[in-house]
Amino acid sequence: MENCRMSARETLNNQSDALTIISPLKCLEIFTRTSLSSPTTGQEGEGPSKKELKRRQKQAEKEAKKAEIAARLASERQAREDADSQNDFSKGKYGSLPINQGQEQSKSKWDKIEEINGSRAGQKVQLCCRLHTLRPTSAKLCFCVLRSEFGTVQAVIAQNENTISKSMVKFVASTNPESLVRLTATVSKPDVPIESCTVKDAELKIETWFIVSNAPSRLPFQLEDAMRPHVEDEEQKASEDASDKDGATQGPNVNLDTRLNNRVFELRTPTNHALFRLCSGVCRLFRDYLLDRDFVEIHSPKLIAAASEGGANVFKVQYFKGSAYLAQSPQLYKQMMIISGFPRVFEVGPVFRAENSNTHRHLTEFTGLDLEMAFNDHYHEVLDFILEMFVNIFQGLEKNYSKELAEVRRVWKVKEFQIFPNGKQEVLRMDYKDAIRILNENGVDLNETDDIDTTNERFLGTLIKKSHGCDFYVVDKFPLAVRPFYTMPSHADPKKWSNSYDIFMRGEEIMSGAQRVHDHDLLVSRATELGVELDGLRDYIDSFKLAASPHAGGGIGLERVLMLYLGTGNIRRTSLFPRDPQRLRP
Fold first, then answer.
1. Counting beta carbons within 10 angstroms of the beta carbon of residue 426, is it exposed (0 to 12), middle (13 to 18) or buried (19 or more)?
2. pLDDT of 293 strictly over 90
3. What confidence tens digit (pLDDT) does each residue in 350-375 have?
4. Which of 73, 90, 109, 571 would staple 165 via disulfide (CB 3.0–4.6 Å)?
5. Does residue 39 have a cis peptide bond before it, meaning omega lies within 30 degrees of 0?
6. How many C-alpha atoms does 68 have within 13 Å on its Cβ side?
7. pLDDT-derived band of residue 308, with 50, 70 and 90 as boundaries?
8. Who contacts 542 (Cβ-Cβ below 8 Å, separation ≥6)?
9. What strand order describes the sheet that includes 303-304?
10. How far is CA 87 from the centre of its chain?
11. Residues acting as catalytic residues
């Protein structure tokens, strides 16, 4: 038959362009003619034997008969489809909508999947949502799951004699998953709860179905694979046929690089919707707490003339005929605002760090939550305020975002964050020397003023969790040698200790803060002692000649707070479009 097809194509190429169909009998004629004229497999120059000719003839007849049957079946199928189309009583109830270019504005009321429940049985709803999965069971029946943000609901369409045609069922069943659809449906209450959806006590009976935007048939990965509960050993998870508590098979998952390379698609998962609502919630709780206490929100420059924190961890960029730097923090501008007469200021904005650190907790660009405030007697006024603010944020998340937390914790099965030590309602606090003592007692050899590295920070967190039962604590009075030039030395021993503090979650630092030097001469002395170049900081340094209030503050990394509070294990998961030494896209 292959020879038949090739011969047919050769003949068609020599015919008029109008000839597009070849009948099975014509195919047989062409095959027979070309077979007789083709070389044999026998001796060179001899024609085919009678036996070979007969075999070819029978083969050609067989293939021609197959082609004739296939053509007849296709014709009958097309005739049935044409008849169904002509008699389709569901016309106008399904199809693909034209591109929305503002043709009209309806006053329809649109429902949300999250608002659907069994108590609304019998009511009609109108949704615009994504098709999550499809499960056709026959030509007359199809189940599907619809998704909107982080809610899912099961829907079904079934052929009947009056309203739902077979063609409509076929159209719904042929819609590509992840397409955006508009539909109307009637809510019904299922006999058995639907455990695979967030809406468990309701099901939708589809009545109309229109495709707003059609997704491609081939997607980067199955979104369901990206929604499964996290398992530490991803290779083991991909190979095991394990079951979770609900008895659902945990199939393959999607690794982090694949997720980040397809971030726009991966962000559609309900877990990501919940996670970044929590991210928004942290910012809102931070902002509201400060605004309610007379703070002013500021927006400082991110292009600056000199490195704000000193050192080499700064991005240098071309600035017309000169150079500029991306701000490592709004630190200097927060302090200058205090000197300008604004006693309480804060900022939410990007922070840039040119650190070639490829770890689970470092980014080259992150969102900073910074605050600075003047005080009257002691810098602990500011530290007390900051700790109260953190407690308010954590409690606000648990109170106002319980649904989002439940979705994230479904995937990341981490123990709930413990704010306070056992049996107490105040944050655990210790001096730096006490942290060193705890480490020394547990086999870590460090001197009193040695810097505590990341490994020992996490070990300290483990020890505190074991002894005090809390995940949140503050270490105060750091050695002066490990803090920036603008950190105020401690009155107790100004050469050794400083009025500075770090706040920790699950053994990792999430805020670094201190009382700042507010005396011009002392600030110049500290900068000179540490070899800081003053020329680029002249505006900042000179502002302290105008008389500055005693003040303190700190900077918080938003993505790191989320990572540690939720237990996601990697800061890239809590950054919308993460930037690290290896990643600048998407």
1. exposed
2. yes
3. 999 998 988 998 999 999 999 999 99
4. 90
5. no
6. 11
7. low
8. 520
9. 303-304, 322-326, 316-319
10. 46
11. 353, 355, 361-362, 509, 512, 560
